[in-house]
């Protein structure tokens, strides 16, 4: 996407001081009023930012993920982050600022100590430890959630559904309904009890909803500009993932 930044700055000198949301709003509803400029849909502008979000390492702060020019805020360089700059050819370039503060090794040691206090499922340790240790909390959570969902698929031989004469792999809520659902004519592929009475079925539905919940969390963290800087909250997500993995271990497909 190309924008005439000279015109933009003439009309909005403080553009680079705006937040990302304010910049998006300005580009969509103010900048496009000039008859000589293309009119950009809000979705197109958001997609522009999201493309940058996807290539930026998840551990970097996205608080300053807006268009900037000239001096980058000192805080970006201090905490780690990135900035987007318009080039002379009107294209956009990305500049990363990794957190190389001298206490990096201390933080890594603290994360290692915190992680070791919890007896996570071996598969959760495998996919999340290194990321958590290095402070990549979002990636650690994402890896753990994806691992649980992949295990559900693998242990049930990747359930499919017919779609226009073709088989389609199930995912998301459809996958969890097929594997764990106990209502109607569906026979669950994985049972957490004998399903002999109403209480058993209620428990089955409750655990199924836990699995459904991680699907929603996975999708949000994969597609939105999500920031996770809290190691304790990350531990809680990993604990939930670990619990679900142990439930799968204890209840193989019937």
Strand content: 5-15%
Count of discrete structural domains: 2
Total count of helical runs of at least 4 residues: 10
Biggest pleated-sheet summary: 2 strands, antiparallel
Arithmetic mean of pLDDT: 74
- Spans where pLDDT lies below 50 across 5 or more residues: 30-40, 55-71, 75-79, 88-92
Task: State Rg.
Answer: 23 Å
Compute the number of strand runs.
4
Distance N terminus to C terminus?
A: 53 Å
Given the helix and strand composition, which structural class is it? mainly alpha
Specify the overall morphology.
globular
Describe the structure.
With 254 residues, the chain is mainly alpha-helical. The chain folds into two domains: 5-97, no CATH class; 104-250, no CATH class. The protein has helices at residues 5-11, 20-29, 42-55, 74-79, 104-116, 122-133, 137-155, 172-180, 198-223, 231-250, and strands at residues 81-86, 92-97, 160-163, 166-169.
Outline of this structure?
The chain is mainly alpha-helical. The protein has helices spanning 5-11, 20-29, 42-55, 74-79, 104-116, 122-133, 137-155, 172-180, 198-223, 231-250, and strands at residues 81-86, 92-97, 160-163, 166-169.
Task: Give the key terms.
single chain, mainly alpha, two-stranded antiparallel ribbon, 54% helix
Topology:
Layout: H1 5-11, H2 20-29, H3 42-55, H4 74-79, E1 81-86, E2 92-97, H5 104-116, H6 122-133, H7 137-155, E3 160-163, E4 166-169, H8 172-180, H9 198-223, H10 231-250
Helix pairs in contact: 6-7, 6-10, 7-9, 7-10, 8-9
